[in-house]
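User: Predict the complex with alpha-D-galactopyranose.
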Amino acid sequence: MVKLTPPMGWNSWNTFGADINEKLIFDTADAMAAKGLPEKGYEYLVIDDCWSMKERDANERLVADPEKFPHGMKAVADYVHSKGLKFGMYSCAGNLTCAGYPGSFEHEFIDAETFAEWEVDFLKYDYCYHSPIIPGKYLYRRMGLALENCGRDILFSACSWGIDETHEWIKTTGASMWRSTGDIFDTWESVKDLTRQQEKLHPYNGAGCFNDMDMLVVGMYGKGNVGLKGCNDIQYRTHFSIWAFMGSPLMIGCDVRDMSQASLDILGNEEIIRINQDRLCSQPVKLAGTWAGEDLLLYSRQLENGDLAIGMFNLSENKAVGRLNLDELGLPFSTGRTLEVKELWTGESVEVKNATMVRELEPFDCAMLRAKVVKL
Ligand code: GLA
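Assistant: Here is the predicted structure with alpha-D-galactopyranose placed in the model:
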């Protein structure tokens, strides 16, 4: 499987944890289609942990829990596919999954074949209960090979939380995305923590194998499996902007059946998604700029049509002012060029004066800018 832009979709874990079943998945597929999410790019519907029986069958095959999924997984795949979506499932490189269901260790090939039979399109592969002796890179290579040989195009989504130097070997495994951070929770502190964890990993992100900052908490408002304090809409908007800007996969984690209009507006912003899906997949540049306040992140990124994306992310609870000089963006006066800048959340133009751009930001807010290079 070759994936050239960050994968997008929905995953059951953040909101539902173990509380998953066929009806929930069918209703979620309906809701995703009804809200136009596939057209925005959200193509995968992924069932996370807790879908199977606690034992394999007599042929060593994984078995779907008949109480949760009475018609089996192929029927779920068929339904998801009928809604124009792709279907994802979950397993683990250890003996057990993180929630204690059978993992794929020493069953990699038979499990990959089972997933292919069920017409699965995506496999999230966790790292709990893994062998203390066999290094993770071997375990992920095994499943990567099993998937490439199972007869179906299945996206391999590795989830070893960035530990054991995952960044050094993940591209040897055939994975199209890899969890580069620990688990997310629905709090601002968690969003901030994962953002900071990601900053040293930008050089490892790129087309074909994307740094996965974990599923989005946008729209959870503190409800569900990883819902703690929750965030407000400004924080969700900044969280989404950071994940999009940094080139992370965008996997929705809230209950899409009754998501708020504000959440849909955030997750559905086509200009922000366009930056995330930009095919240049260029590395974000951390800018020094000058800024007043605390915890303000300034970034730029080259885009495939010659534009620049500029992100200003105020992680703090106080107002901040960011100031960028065009020099640092690669446009000193000597180039005879300047920027025409648009803010993507508000649609307003941003002035560039004396080769400088200034932006005030409310607490937790961000500016997502798209800038065109023009003659002075
Ligand atoms: C780990 C993963 C989570 C989720 C759970 C399921 O913690 O990082 O994303 O898949 O396991 O048990």
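The chain has a mean pLDDT of 97.
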